[in-house]
Amino acid sequence: MTDKQKTQIQRLRQEGYGYVKIAQELNLPKNTIKSFCRRNPVEVIETKNICKQCGKPIEQNPKRREKKFCSVSCRIKWWNCHSSELQHRKFSTCHHCGKSFYGKPGRKYCNHECYIAERFGGNHVAKTV
Asked: What is the pTM of this model?
């Protein structure tokens, strides 16, 4: 491992990156990164109380889930710029009409009307509330 790689590992570790992400970025084995980090501990910068979008401090509520954004607008802006990180969604094909749609894994139909038509035949009309 070169000195340049060692400094990159320390910098990425300070930024809060995990062993796997660092290994992928530097094309090194995960266990090499892990061993180096254990032998050379680095103080990780605390990022839990900072908004991921704008960097403003966030007040955390005890006994609640950790807040990652200071506001709804920051959350929307961040996810619009980082849509590639949405791993829980994928493209599927509707079982009824055959159209492609973007949704959660295991979803069979693109909308409620296709579900009703497939399940009960085309004669039923979905009630709108």
From this structure: 0.38
